[in-house]
């Protein structure tokens, strides 16, 4: 089996930062340190941090007063921040700086008196947090088709932002529909799609053009991992695999060259585990497709710096 690896793949700077924040908080304060929601969308990462003393909770009411809490990389609503302050929780914000940028954009548009449209997936933690960060009316749309049903008080005073982990094409199509219906709308085009999401999508498209099938290592609840599988599936059979132990060998039937990539919240060790699983059955020849070398790093918050 020839295995061709995408470049880049796996952890992005926002995920690396969020994980390091939890580890540093544990080293500084000792266990337990509470984390609201999964710090990133990968159960392997969550389980590893849990063994070190992190306690993951759905809501703040599961945390004792005065304890330390970390907000996940997806961001939280302002009401969550206010509740943490009211209860004297030692809050550490691990929100990805690129998600925080979307919050600030939305807040700026709202301060200009504009109604804000958010392009995103309902119920996704990042979307829930962004909706809760922007004051005033915020309308959520998922696809270009949703734009037709929007009711805007003043079409001359409208703006849009987007979830950072969508596909670039999906966001562009919806943004174009918004501009067609509301010519005065302002917004960032596809610039809210984070660099890591864009880079991995470009890489998986290049990969899918030269292989017989693609496996994306990542969680089923990971938006960016799901998008990678969908993009690869435009070219070849593509599969999302959360745990290498669950590999469906039927996926490899008739496959001479297998493409492998990983979502931004999937650790590289899972890619290595997948290759080892395959190598236990057949010889594996591996290579990496040339691609973008990422060097982005984000500063840690003062509480753990």
Q: Any overview of this molecule?
A:
The chain is 35% helix and 17% strand. It is of the alpha/beta class and 305 residues long. It has three domains: 2-11 and 195-288, Cobalt-precorrin-4 Transmethylase, domain 1 (3-Layer(aba) Sandwich), CATH 3.40.1010.20; 13-96, Rossmann fold; 98-181, 4-hydroxy-3-methylbut-2-enyl diphosphate reductase, catalytic domain (Cobalt-precorrin-4 Transmethylase, domain 1). The protein starts with a strand and ends in a 17-residue tail after the last strand. The mean pLDDT is 96.
Mean of all residue-level pLDDT scores: 96
Instruction: Please give the radius of gyration in angstroms.
Output: 20 Å
Low-confidence stretches: none
Instruction: Sum up the overall morphology in one term.
Output: flat
Distance between the termini: 45 Å
Order of helices and strands: EHEHEEHEHEHEEHHEHEEHE
Overall structural domain count = 3
What's the architecture of the largest domain, going by CATH?
Answer: 3-Layer(aba) Sandwich
| Beta-strand percent range | 15-25%
The overall strand count is: 12
Count of alpha and pi helical runs: 9
CATH topology description of the largest domain: Cobalt-precorrin-4 Transmethylase, domain 1
Q: CATH first level of the largest domain: which class?
A: Alpha Beta
* CATH homologous superfamily grouping of the largest domain: 4-hydroxy-3-methylbut-2-enyl diphosphate reductase, catalytic domain
Given helix and strand content, the structural type is: alpha/beta
Q: How can the largest sheet be summarized?
A: 5 strands, parallel
State the helical fraction.
Answer: 25-40%
- Strand order in space, largest sheet: 10-9-11-1-12
């Amino acid at each position: 089996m020839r295995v061709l690896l995408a470049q880049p793949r796996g952890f992005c700077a926002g995920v690396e930062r969020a994980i390091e924040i939890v580890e540093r908080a544990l080293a500084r304060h000792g266990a337990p340190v509470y984390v609201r929601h999964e710090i990133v969308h990968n159960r392997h990462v969550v389980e590893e941090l849990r063994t070190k003393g992190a306690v993951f909770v759905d809501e703040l009411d599961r945390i004792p007063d005065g304890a330390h809490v970390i907000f996940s990389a997806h961001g939280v609503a302002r009401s969550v921040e206010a509740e943490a302050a009211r209860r004297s929780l030692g809050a550490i914000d691990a929100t990805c700086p690129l998600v925080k940028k979307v919050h600030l954009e939305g807040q700026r548009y709202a301060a200009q008196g504009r109604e804000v449209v958010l392009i995103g997936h309902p119920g996704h933690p990042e979307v829930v947090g962004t909706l809760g960060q922007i004051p005033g009316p915020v309308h959520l749309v998922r696809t270009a088709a949703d734009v037709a049903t929007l009711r805007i008080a003043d079409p001359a005073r409208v703006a849009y932002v987007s979830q950072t982990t969508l596909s670039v094409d999906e966001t562009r199509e919806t943004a174009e529909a918004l501009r067609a219906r509301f010519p005065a709308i302002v917004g960032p085009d596809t610039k809210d799609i984070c660099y890591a999401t864009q880079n991995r999508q470009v890489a998986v498209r290049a990969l899918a053009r030269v292989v017989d099938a693609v496996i994306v290592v990542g969680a089923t609840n990971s938006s960016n991992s799901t998008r990678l599988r969908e993009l690869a599936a435009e070219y070849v059979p593509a599969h999302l695999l959360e745990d290498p132990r669950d590999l469906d060998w039927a996926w490899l039937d008739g496959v001479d060259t297998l493409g492998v990539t990983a979502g931004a919240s999937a650790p590289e060790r899972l890619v290595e585990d997948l290759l080892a699983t395959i190598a236990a059955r057949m010889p594996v020849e591996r290579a990496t497709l040339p691609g973008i070398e990422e060097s982005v790093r984000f500063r840690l918050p003062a509480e753990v710096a």
